[in-house]
From TrEMBL:
<comment type="similarity">
    <text>Belongs to the GTP-binding SRP family. FtsY subfamily.</text>
</comment>
<feature type="binding site">
    <location>
        <begin position="208"/>
        <end position="215"/>
    </location>
    <ligand>
        <name>GTP</name>
    </ligand>
</feature>
<dbReference type="InterPro" id="IPR000897">
    <property type="entry name" value="SRP54_GTPase_dom"/>
</dbReference>
<keyword id="KW-0472">Membrane</keyword>
<protein>
    <recommendedName>
        <fullName>Signal recognition particle receptor FtsY</fullName>
        <ecNumber>3.6.5.4</ecNumber>
    </recommendedName>
</protein>
<dbReference type="InterPro" id="IPR042101">
    <property type="entry name" value="SRP54_N_sf"/>
</dbReference>
<feature type="binding site">
    <location>
        <begin position="352"/>
        <end position="355"/>
    </location>
    <ligand>
        <name>GTP</name>
    </ligand>
</feature>
<dbReference type="InterPro" id="IPR027417">
    <property type="entry name" value="P-loop_NTPase"/>
</dbReference>
<keyword id="KW-0675">Receptor</keyword>
<dbReference type="InterPro" id="IPR004390">
    <property type="entry name" value="SR_rcpt_FtsY"/>
</dbReference>
<feature type="domain" description="SRP54-type proteins GTP-binding">
    <location>
        <begin position="373"/>
        <end position="386"/>
    </location>
</feature>
<keyword id="KW-1003">Cell membrane</keyword>
<dbReference type="Pfam" id="PF00448">
    <property type="entry name" value="SRP54"/>
</dbReference>
<dbReference type="InterPro" id="IPR003593">
    <property type="entry name" value="AAA+_ATPase"/>
</dbReference>
<keyword id="KW-0378">Hydrolase</keyword>
<feature type="region of interest" description="Disordered">
    <location>
        <begin position="25"/>
        <end position="78"/>
    </location>
</feature>
<comment type="function">
    <text>Involved in targeting and insertion of nascent membrane proteins into the cytoplasmic membrane. Acts as a receptor for the complex formed by the signal recognition particle (SRP) and the ribosome-nascent chain (RNC).</text>
</comment>
Amino acid sequence: METIILAVVIAVVVLAVLGGLVVGSRRRKPLPPPPPAAPDITAPPAEPHVGDEAETPRDEPRRTIEEVDLPDGGSTGVAVEEPPVVEAPQIEIPEPTAGRLVRLRTRLSRSQNALGKGLLTLLSREHLDEDTWEEIEDTLLTADVGVAPTQELVERLRERVRVLGTRTPDELRALLREELLELIGTEVDRTVKTEPADRKPGIVMVVGVNGTGKTTTTGKLARVLVADGRTVVLGAADTFRAAAADQLQTWGERVGAHTVRGPEAGDPASVAFDAVKEGKEMGVDVVLIDTAGRLHTKTGLMDELGKVKRVVEKHAPLDEVLLVLDATTGQNGLVQARVFAEVVDITGIVLTKLDGTAKGGIVVAVQRELGVPVKLVGLGEGADDLAPFEPEAFVDALIGE
């Protein structure tokens, strides 16, 4: 009996424990799932490279800002490359003008003494008959002396030779030198007027036909004036030729002269007016105005040259109007000279390329034609090859030593 009771008690206890387990499992709430682990971040693929850089970049040690060398001033900005500094052209010191033609005498005589030697050879003949005198006339005419001056010179030579009687080489050279100097003129004032007594600046206008070397002459004249201690302003009134203003400005920069210029194909008279105005404001000694190389056959352009002159004279009268002639053109240059003289009052002549012609008689002919003196001569391509005309040095170069 006791065994039966013990078995019943054990069964009851087992049932009670099983029931408690079932009830407890129903009351228990489910736990939230654990948080997911942090995802692995995959680096993006490296950019493709070419050649030696085609491999995947590797980690490299990095420096802190304290370890980085900074430029002076501590600036971390991007360095900006400065534009190159344009150096101003070096100002040249022209050689003095005193005796410049004498120094260039060798160059002049090398090309000019055909006239002098030809005359000396003819005058040295034992008998000076009519044929010889005709040859002397032809020699002078070929050298562009002109008809009237040639006749005057031959008459004087005839008389002097008849009086002298004997004609040694030294006597003939002295005789010819005297007569040529008389023909050219030694008493004429050949000074380029740039210093008016009552005002500053002096105003010089340079005129001439294309190809005579007008712009170059203007630049060389600036050098002559600077060499003599003057200050200069250049007016680039040749607005019809694109390179003229640039060329003149280059000449000016070499000697420190300011250049006034206008727009291409602009009004030349306006540029000339502004040049004189700026010259007055700057207090310079001389204003040089380069005009267009106007063809003397075109009336409209010649009228415009007259307009330039009138506009400039609103400031002050012109002190010089220099006509540039090419010595190699001979009698054709005289035609040009006549037309220019009708438009503006020519006060002086510049003969260029005198070293390239045996026709030195153009000096006599052009003076006779215009009634104004040759004041300057160009004897080469060098910057200082423009010289004041000196009759004695010129004649000595013609007839030789």
